[in-house]
Design brief:
single chain, alpha/beta, Rossmann fold, 2 domains, four-stranded antiparallel sheet, 22% strand, globular, binds adenosine-5'-triphosphate
Amino acid sequence: MSETIKEMDSEQNSSGSQTTKGETEERIRADWVEYDFDGQPALSVEDLDVYYGDEQAIQSVSMDIPEKSVTALIGPSGCGKSTFLRCLNRMNDRIKAARVDGNIEFHGQNIYDDDVNLVELRKRIGMVFQQPNPFPKSIRDNIAYGPRKHGELDTGLLARLLGRDDSEEEEELVERCLKQAAIWDEVNDRLDDNALGLSGGQQQRLCIARCLSVEPEVILMDEPASALDPIATSKIEDLIQDLAEEYTVVIVTHSMQQAARISDQTAVFLTGGELVEYDNTDKIFENPESQRVEDYITGKFG
Ligand SMILES: Nc1ncnc2c1ncn2[C@@H]1O[C@H](COP(=O)(O)OP(=O)(O)OP(=O)(O)O)[C@@H](O)[C@H]1O
């Protein structure tokens, strides 16, 4: 693998002539060691390229993301981890300069097909960001907002008058999501308080509970603990591992220790948006195939 990368860096093939993009992609694929896992992929990424204007941020990435497990995306700053993560629920569509080529299959459909309903897609593939971003509303409303918006909960005066008040269902949903996100015990006596009054770690767990309220299958997390202290981080890490029993979690992290602690498989991206190695987390950290990955993990660069 490392030889391939060196060759690619020089942009010359063995006969000394310039390498075309097609040849480069072919070589990435030819050298690629497929990550073999038991079970089903939740998402299958094939030949993904992402450009911001003329700059390529992701280069011909293919990978299957196993369901109900934690997949960590690691690599040095600017290597494309967040860009890749945002492709998985089409958040890059919101960035004007971004252009995405390739396929990402979710339940047999390419999420980049024209007829994909983005609201529905992002409901099934939710996202948690680096900075906790609760709505400036009550704790209860943070959880109930999504289901109300999607028409799954009907509450309030009109609903009561029409005899289809879902207040009881809402109470159950709020409790279930807050319990799943391991924050119920800390907030159950103040559900009507403003969420902005919670600590950073509590706000982040509330955001995870909010994401769960619309019953996603996949949860994308972009450095969800990087703004938190070690105790809050540890709670988020425990929570992520618990969630992976039911959900597929994909997490971008700058912390190799965190990836090693909580993930089942790790994908290592290196500069230029190449996915250089993707394997079982123990294998990546103990015996990587690629010299460049070993150098990165042992701190020789990055
Ligand atoms: N909205 C944008 N517009 C233009 N270029 C962008 C945009 N977002 C990212 N990039 C560029 O794409 C490349 C990959 O960025 P990205 O944020 O995905 O990397 P990263 O690995 O997540 O970095 P970090 O670890 O620092 O968050 C970088 O060169 C970055 O400058």
